[in-house]
């Protein structure tokens, strides 16, 4: 993208209070009015239902600000490799009734990112191995082909619309991550996620600024021919309340939102706990995403402690990757990295997910695998399947949540998956 076309992000909000819907609408409308979008083909990229987000409010505002100005308005759901959302699921996510999307947004098309359809993807270049080695700080060296949903390339302007949270692969989500992996092809997903796994979730999650994974994603985004804008929001987890909104150039909008996220989405404890029970909300319907209940609490669990993923509603490991996960199970990073010839041909994104849920540990030919904490599933997945994945099992009915809240050695985390827990004193972010 031509840097001359970048508009520095404007920002509203703080960690002290939530914005009113009227404040949010007025601010976004004003900022988009100042963007040169008249007569343009605009693509809006939004999250799927696995994120807390007042999507109807945001989409209503963007739609009202753009319809009548732009030549064409398209909306693309950033699935990554998550399952296709049905019409009913889309209507629920946008909080409209049956056939409500067409009535509410008649001038916009709303589509899933069809990552499973090769014809929907287009190559926009390659990040050469030497550059990958530089961006990854020596951790990876391979040519990475950059493919993306063709709607991104066809648009004059891409507006990324969605929340920013601490993230286990990239540091903080949002911004260009909605492109890669949000609407990208498989190689970028695999390379970026395995790079995050090599760094480790515990080391990268909630890290401010440009992490090696963010640098690789930004490199890929620089190949997109259109103008990249963002409306990045900071959401009160589990609600539709917004702490802040940043609108403008995708990079500066993300920077402002991630700084606020660092001040609102991280909780600090003075000392580690022996056990965490992560109560998984209904927005996570598979271990693939419910594993955030492990990522976000791993830093506060004592050596030899336990994380219990409490999700009685959950009966699926992964709608998309279940067979691949069943083949390898859940293991620490060194289990794969030190036996790379055995695992290098497995999908790297699946390997990364495995290490993120399993957490820190070691592996050697002499001692085998030694994991820092025990990960226990208390779900509707059977004991046999759970143990076959190298995880511990508890029946959800055997866990007394009320008693656990009174146990000084146990932390019960409600609505787990978006708030990051760390040890120590909170730093001051800019």
Description:
There is one protein chain. The protein is of the alpha/beta class and 430 residues long. The protein folds into two domains: 3-264, Rossmann fold (3-Layer(aba) Sandwich); 267-423, LarA, C-terminal domain (2-enoyl-CoA Hydratase, Chain A, domain 1, Alpha-Beta Complex), CATH 3.90.226.30. 32% of the residues lie in helices and 26% in strands. The protein is built from 18 helices and 20 strands. A seven-stranded mixed β-sheet has the order 1-11-10-7-2-3-4, with helices on both faces. The protein has a five-stranded parallel β-sheet with strand order 18-17-14-13-19. Strands 5-6 form a two-stranded antiparallel sheet. Strand 17, helix 17 and strand 18 form a beta-alpha-beta unit.
> Largest sheet, order of strands side by side?
1-11-10-7-2-3-4
Helix residue percentage: 25-40%
CATH uppermost class of the largest domain:
Alpha Beta
User: What spatial form do the alpha-carbon principal axes imply?
Assistant: globular
Distance separating the two termini: 26 Å
Structural class: alpha/beta
How is this structure best summarized?
The chain is of the alpha/beta class and 430 residues long. It has helices at residues 21-33, 55-66, 87-93, 100-104, 129-135, 150-154, 186-199, 201-204, 212-221, 250-264, 287-290, 292-295, 322-328, 333-337, 340-343, 348-358, 383-388, 401-406, and strands spanning 10-13, 41-47, 72-78, 108-112, 121-127, 144-149, 157-163, 166-167, 171-172, 227-235, 242-249, 266-269, 273-279, 301-311, 361-364, 368-371, 374-379, 392-393, 410-413, 420-423.
């Amino acid at each position: 993208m031509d840097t001359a076309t970048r508009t520095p992000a404007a920002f509203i909000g703080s960690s002290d209070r939530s914005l009113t819907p009227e404040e949010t609408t007025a601010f976004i409308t004003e900022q988009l009015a100042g963007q040169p979008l008249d007569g343009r083909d605009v693509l809006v990229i939004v999250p799927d239902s696995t994120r807390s987000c007042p999507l109807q409010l945001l989409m209503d505002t963007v739609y009202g600000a753009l319809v009548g100005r732009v030549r064409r308005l398209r909306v693309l759901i950033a699935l990554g490799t998550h399952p296709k959302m049905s019409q009913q699921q889309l209507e629920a996510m946008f909080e409209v009734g049956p056939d409500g999307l067409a009535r509410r947004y008649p001038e916009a098309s709303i589509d899933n990112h069809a990552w499973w359809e090769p014809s929907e993807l287009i190559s926009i270049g390659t990040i050469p191995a030497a550059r990958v080695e530089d961006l990854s700080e020596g951790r990876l060296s391979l040519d990475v082909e950059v493919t993306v949903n063709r709607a991104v390339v066809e648009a004059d302007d891409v507006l990324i619309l969605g929340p920013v949270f601490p993230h286990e692969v990239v540091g903080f989500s949002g911004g260009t991550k909605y492109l890669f992996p949000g609407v990208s092809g498989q190689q970028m997903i695999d390379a970026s996620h395995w790079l995050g796994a090599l760094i480790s979730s515990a080391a990268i999650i909630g890290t401010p600024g440009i992490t090696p994974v963010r640098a690789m994603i930004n490199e890929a985004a620089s190949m997109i021919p259109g103008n990249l804008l963002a409306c990045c929001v900071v959401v009160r987890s589990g609600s539709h309340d917004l702490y802040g909104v940043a609108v403008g150039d995708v990079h500066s909008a993300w920077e402002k939102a991630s700084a606020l996220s660092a001040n609102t989405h991280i909780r600090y404890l003075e000392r580690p706990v022996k056990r965490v029970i992560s109560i998984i909300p209904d927005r996570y319907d598979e271990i693939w995403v419910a594993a955030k209940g492990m990522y976000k609490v791993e830093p506060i669990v004592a050596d030899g402690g336990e994380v219990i993923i409490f999700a009685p509603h959950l009966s699926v490991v992964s709608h998309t990757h279940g067979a691949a996960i069943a083949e390898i199970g859940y293991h620490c990073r060194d289990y794969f990295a030190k036996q790379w010839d055995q695992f290098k041909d497995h999908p790297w994104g699946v390997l990364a997910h495995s290490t993120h849920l399993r957490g820190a540990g070691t592996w050697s030919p002499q001692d085998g695998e030694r994991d820092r904490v025990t990960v226990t599933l208390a779900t509707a997945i059977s004991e046999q399947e759970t143990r076959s994945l190298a995880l511990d099992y508890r029946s959800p009915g055997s866990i007394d949540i009320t008693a656990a809240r009174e146990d000084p050695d146990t932390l019960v985390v409600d609505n787990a998956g978006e708030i990051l827990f760390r040890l120590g004193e909170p730093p001051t972010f800019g």
